[in-house]
Write a structure and sequence with these properties.
It is a single chain. This protein is 39% helix and 17% strand. By secondary structure, it is of the alpha/beta class. Strand 11, helix 9 and strand 12 form a beta-alpha-beta unit. Homodimer.
């Protein structure tokens, strides 16, 4: 589709072009009344997956499409922002059209659009926002800006009847947060990673262990490869890893030390066996199991302190003791089971969305839009300046957790899968 105006154009994949001035066109505040039939189209391009979905107030997914870049990034050993941007550019138009096709509706029948504006990769976010603004202007639709982490924290409510407030642990390749979800737009941040995210560290660890040289793990992400390899361990407690931040009485995380410890163990074993090039250490399965258990132990330790703090401060209702685990690492069944045992210890129910919704997707963005409309939130103006790659998450009360000075013993984690 081309516009007969003297404008430079912004070219997207699928033959669609968008005038470059669209990011600067003002989209005015408007109200949208909610009903169970309210239908929202969500667009997600914060990192490396191009996702689009149409969801209604009943929580039904009318149509969805996801273009994953995982195969490319596995080959290159991680997400390359420029490659991600190029693939978003090529796929965004196709993702939206395919989602609409599967829903058997057109954009004119959508009540509003929702798009991720923060946090994430700047180039990737820009693709989604520009395209969403183009659609909103063309079809005269309300456009709802979405916070990526808030969408992860809320999407489980689409599948389960989980009232506010509740505790959430968001663990992925780009983030690690512990927070209290008080309402659709109200979050209390209890802890965050001080360095790397757990998924990022697992991907780097898998690369250093050369798991992709083993055929059955060559086409999956690093974190998934470690989970699968750990199931073949015969001595999962062979390697000992330190518990990060053990003396720090807060809910923050640190994973870089675990990665460094793993690298030293790999180097030692490679030297012992005289390995060269692409050769993999014989103890690879046991090392994967031990490393995975160290990640789970660290997460469980911080989660237990968060639960204790919330109960002390009465941040959660005694009759609604729920925890939501979301993000890509939440797909790891071993890690989830370890966290579930912590929840059970304190009488909490643990939930996680279906695996395909734990990772980045358009469904969670569309559902977040539904939640905002249902609550009656004022839809803010959206311009290119709203994109915030390093946006914070919620009201930071980390210092209050530190001041509480809660001693929590390191949990005992079973290494068995």
């Amino acid at each position: 589709m081309y516009f007969r105006r003297k404008l430079k154009i912004y070219r997207l994949g699928g033959g669609t072009t968008v005038p470059q001035d669209y990011p600067f066109i003002t989209l005015y505040r408007r109200n949208l009344s909610y009903s169970r039939k309210t239908t929202i189209l969500g667009i997600e391009t914060s990192c490396d997956d191009t996702g689009c979905a149409i969801v209604n107030g009943y929580g039904n997914i009318l149509g969805e499409c996801l273009y994953s870049q995982n195969a490319l990034h596995v080959r290159y050993g991680g997400v390359n922002p420029v490659h991600a941007w190029e693939l978003h550019r090529d796929n965004i138009d196709l993702a939206v059209k395919n989602a609409l096709k599967s829903a058997k509706i057109g954009v004119s029948e959508i009540d509003a659009l929702a798009v991720t504006v923060k946090p994430g990769l700047l180039l990737s976010l820009t693709i989604g926002v520009k395209y969403a603004k183009f659609l909103a202007k063309k079809y005269d639709k309300i456009l709802i800006p979405i916070h990526h982490m808030e969408a992860h924290a809320l999407v489980a409510r689409m599948y389960y009847d989980i009232p506010f407030p509740y505790l959430t642990l968001l663990i992925s390749g780009g983030h690690c947060f512990l927070a209290v979800v008080k309402d659709v737009d109200s979050f209390l941040l209890l802890g965050q990673t001080l360095d790397n995210a757990p998924g990022e560290v697992m991907d780097k660890a898998a690369r250093r262990m050369k798991l992709k040289n083993i055929f059955e793990y060559s086409a999956v992400s690093g974190g998934r490869a470690i989970e699968l390899a750990a199931k073949n361990a015969t001595n999962p407690a062979m390697f000992q890893f330190p518990i990060p931040l053990l003396k720090n009485r807060d809910c923050n995380f640190s994973f870089s030390g675990l990665k460094d410890s793993l690298v030293r163990k790999v180097l030692k074993k490679e030297s012992e066996h005289g390995l060269r090039g692409d050769e993999v250490i014989p103890e690879i399965y046991d090392l994967c199991a031990s490393f995975q258990a160290s990640i789970a132990r660290h997460l469980a330790h911080r989660l237990e302190r968060a639960i204790t703090f919330c109960e002390m401060k009465k941040l959660l209702h005694f009759d609604t003791k729920n925890i939501i685990i979301s993000g890509g690492v939440a797909c790891n069944d071993y890690i989830y089971s370890c966290l579930e045992r912590v929840g059970n210890k304190f009488g909490f129910n643990l939930y996680r969305p279906p695996h395909k919704v734990c990772t980045d997707n358009g469904v969670m963005v569309a559902w977040n839009g539904i939640e905002k409309v249902k609550k009656g939130d004022t839809i803010p103006l959206l311009s290119i300046s709203n994109i915030d790659p390093t946006a914070s998450f919620g009201l930071n009360i980390i210092d209050q957790v530190k001041e509480a000075n809660l001693p929590i013993r390191a949990p005992t984690i079973e290494n068995k899968m």
